Amino acid sequence: FCYIFASPEVCTNSLIPGAKGDQGDYGEQGEEGKLGKNGPPGLSGVPGEPGLKGEVGPSGKMGPIGEKGDKGAKGFDGPVGIKGQAGATCDCGRYRKVVGQLDENLGKLRNNVKFVKNVVLGLKETEDRYYLLVKEPKKFREASMNCKLRGGALAMPKTNNINRLMADYISQAGLTRVYVGVQAQSKGTDGIGSYIYADSTPLREFAVWSQEEQLYSTSSPATNVSCVELLNTGTWNKVVCETPLFFICEFPKSRRRGRGGAAASAL
């Protein structure tokens, strides 16, 4: 096209745009672009529910023996005894010195027996039984056999008083847990198992399971936690029977041997 302006010498060529055409087809999808920068971290999520209770870990090494405590204060003097009857006069002068010496020796013997029971053996006792804490880590079956070889059995806390005595025994020794004579028995025909004492008697009304055991307990004891440990708090926990632990033995007081017979057997 040629437009002629006022001057005959000027001429220009230019394209006049036409009407808008139809929309073309979409092209093929291009290649994936490069990853952009990491965005800012999001908000913290809601905490999840607590997981299941894990298995009991292996026993740690025994800590060092603590320092000897201070000597306790002297106790109060006991009441004065009743005045005895006057003795009969006789010609026993030469025997009095011998009898006095025998009394002195008997007193020393009693002190020695008391020392053996309370210091050397560290025994605790009730009206009819002795209790001995054995500081030799053993598996449950080995601990039970060890008590039998000593002439007793694994200690069975059948009452609250006995359970408390044994828990205090553990605390005074600086320990946290020991085996006692409670374990799971085989399931019956109904498929339900239960826990019994070492002498095969049922627990009946008395049992001091910890709050965790009550929370996670089931109607049937698990085979891998079918033994029981007593904590120094006085509560019971189920434990794997292959775990080496210290343990407490009990010994009946023998009437034939006298009050010192069980202590001598335990030693």
From TrEMBL:
Gene3D superfamilies: Mannose-Binding Protein A, subunit A (3.10.100.10). InterPro entries: C-type_lectin-like, C-type_lectin-like/link_sf, CLec_Tetranectin-domain, Collagen, CTDL_fold. Residues 126-250 form the C-type lectin domain. This is Collectin subfamily member 10. It comes from Poecilia formosa. Keywords: Calcium, Collagen, Lectin, Secreted, Signal. GO terms for biological process: ossification. Residues 16-77 are annotated as: Disordered. GO terms for cellular component: collagen trimer; extracellular space. It holds the Pfam family Collagen. SUPFAM superfamilies: C-type lectin-like (SSF56436).
